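pasting for the record
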Amino acid sequence: MFGSKERKIEKMVQKAKWDKLNKMLLKADADTRLLIAQECQKAQDPGVNSILSLLIRDGDKRVRIAAIKSMGVTGRNHEVAQLEWVLSNTPADETDVIEAVHEALPKLRNKK
């Protein structure tokens, strides 16, 4: 279903094409945003966190969770505040989002 789109996003992440991914996000449907959030986990460039910063506030819960998990892998200590913001602005009934934040935060703390 996503073969060529998935490969395109994968290459953009590998080549750190954050501006192009930002533009793609403007028109992307939820499934594409989800793919971007998942692929960002593989990035070696710290610029990926600008994309993830947008996606952790996405309207689709699946996208938010994937972005939070990716940020837990790629982020550094200064992304802690963003995840704490998500935590304080997430309704208590969204336990899966809260759980993702709680899993990501320890990975980020003291990571430079």
